[in-house]
Amino acid sequence: MMENNNLNEYLKLAINAALHAGRKIMDVYRSGNLGVEQKSDLSPVTIADKAASKIIEKLLNSSGLPYLSEEELFSSFEERSKWGLFWCVDPLDGTKEFISKSRDFTVNIALIDKNEPILGVVYLPAFDCLYFGGKGIASRKYDQVKNASVSEIIENSFQLPIKQSNEKFVMIGSHSHLDDKTKAYFETVFDERGRGNVEILIRGSSLKMCMIAEGLADYYPRLSHIMEWDIAAGHAICEAAGCQVTDWNGNRLTYNKSDFFMPWFKIIRNH
Fold first, then answer.
1. Under a CB-based contact definition with an 8 Å cutoff, are residues 135 and 121 in contact?
2. Do 94 and 105 touch, CB atoms closer than 8 A?
3. At residue 250, what are phi and psi to the nearest 5 degrees?
4. Are both 4-159 and 169-268 of the same fold?
């Protein structure tokens, strides 16, 4: 494992890149000129996704580490399999929410060590708040980022979880991927715990993971398609906040796979 002071330098780089990308995303958001296109997998992409990716790549370039972004050409798996440390980035997670003018979209920047996320930064531009955490770095949140320096954000942020308990057992689901399997699973939890004892929140993007880390929700079950860059940053933040992040069978999630697909997973907040 790398020395903590090196990880802190990477943290500063990632926060700075996330903030600059977020400002560009908000410029596009407010302009109303989103430039929506459809990718080969039929998912949407906007000029904000593309611009944010370029900004992040440029600002992380000084680290000298490889860079993997949803919106850039991928290195071959043969090449990637030789990587040690590398950046895994979703420059605009929650593009559907962004297009629909919801505020549930994020900038996700993770540092991966071979196949494990060791640092995560998630910025919510429309809420102007930032989450971060990693190996040896307690997960933290900073509100009203706009006029703060990176050093101020790191020094004056609040350690997670902020909320220690919920009156009900709070599950959280995806706004854009609330499929029949997930709805059926929610029903089983209602049956097990009693409908009056369970609350369901529906949100978009990696905000769901940040809400688990903050203590606003207790359980995030994911029974549908997702990619590595969607959850790498949130994974690091949740683990650093003491949450359990595993696949559906309780095994550790691994990264830098040949196809980037993640299995069903669950995040459980420890009490």
1. no
2. yes
3. 90, 10
4. no
Q: What is the pLDDT of residues 126-184, one digit of tens each?
A: 999 999 999 999 999 999 998 899 999 999 999 999 999 999 999 999 877 778 899 99
Q: Residue 142: what are its φ and ψ, rounded to 5°?
A: -130, 125
What's the CA angle centered on 203, arms 268 and 26, to 5 degrees? 125
Q: Do 59 and 150 touch, CB atoms closer than 8 A?
A: no
CB 133 within 8 A of CB 240: yes
Q: Which amino acid is at 156?
A: N
What's the whole-model pTM score? 0.95
- Do residues 226 and 209 touch, judged by C-beta distance below 8 A? no
Listed residue (12, 26, 59) closest to 153, CA to CA: 12
- Give phi and psi for 177, each to the nearest 5: -130, 40
Range 169-268 classified under CATH 3.40.190.80: yes
Q: In what order do the strands lie in the sheet with 106-113?
A: 67-69, 85-93, 106-113, 116-124, 129-134, 137-143, 158-159
Contact 215, 161 (CB under 8 A): yes
Burial track 219-236 (b if 16+ CB lie within 10 A, e otherwise): bbbbbeebbbbbbbbbbb
Strands (E), 126-243: 129-134, 137-143, 158-159, 169-174, 198-203, 219-222
**Domain covering 4-159: architecture:** 2-Layer Sandwich (3.30)
